[in-house]
């Protein structure tokens, strides 16, 4: 599946922030931003990390919502919280691309706009590709970029654990 930059990298950044968890340190958030090529002018401080953890918790609700209409409602609420007129930007040698927050907005606000924009684009491209791991006990989220769009687990390890548990349950029954 081909994503635009918001539905691709921005959606994956949203996933990474959600999966970093509520106790993510400023250094951990910096590592996530670096991994997804988000280049802030300065490092994330502890207060910003806490604010992004609260934001990630709100993003997690989108992944937890089983109904597309509910996901649309949640994303619209999040988009309203960071609403700014979109504009085309060119910076750092990159091709022209959309921004959904003013370039001089505070870092946390720009990250919020970027991540919710990414999830919104991913949802509009294919609502079934925003997912949560099906293994009981795992709360890892993902955006399914597989060719067939049928991903159910966050990793091969979780898939194997779930399948082994199912196999053992079936053997006990019969």
Automatic annotation (TrEMBL):
Top-level lineage group: Bacteria
Cross-referenced Pfam families: zf-CGNR (PF11706)
Residue intervals of the Zinc finger CGNR domain: 129-171
PANTHER family, A to Z: BLL6575 PROTEIN
Protein's UniProt name: CGNR zinc finger protein
Organism name: Pseudonocardia hierapolitana
């Amino acid at each position: 599946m081909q994503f635009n930059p918001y539905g691709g990298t921005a959606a994956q950044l949203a996933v990474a922030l959600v999966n970093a968890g509520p106790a993510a340190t400023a250094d951990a958030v910096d590592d996530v931003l670096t991994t997804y090529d988000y280049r802030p002018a300065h490092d994330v401080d502890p207060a910003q990390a806490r604010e992004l953890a609260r934001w990630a918790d709100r993003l997690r609700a989108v992944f937890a919502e089983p109904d597309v209409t509910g996901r649309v409602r949640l994303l619209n609420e999040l988009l309203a919280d960071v609403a700014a007129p979109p504009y085309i930007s060119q910076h750092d040698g990159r091709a022209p691309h959309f921004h959904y927050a003013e370039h001089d907005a505070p870092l946390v606000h720009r990250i919020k706009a970027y991540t919710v924009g990414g999830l919104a684009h991913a949802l509009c491209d294919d609502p079934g590709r925003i997912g949560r791991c099906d293994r009981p006990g795992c709360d890892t989220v993902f955006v399914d970029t597989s060719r067939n769009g049928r991903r159910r687990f966050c990793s091969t390890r979780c898939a194997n654990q779930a399948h082994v548990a199912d196999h053992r349950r079936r053997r006990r029954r019969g």
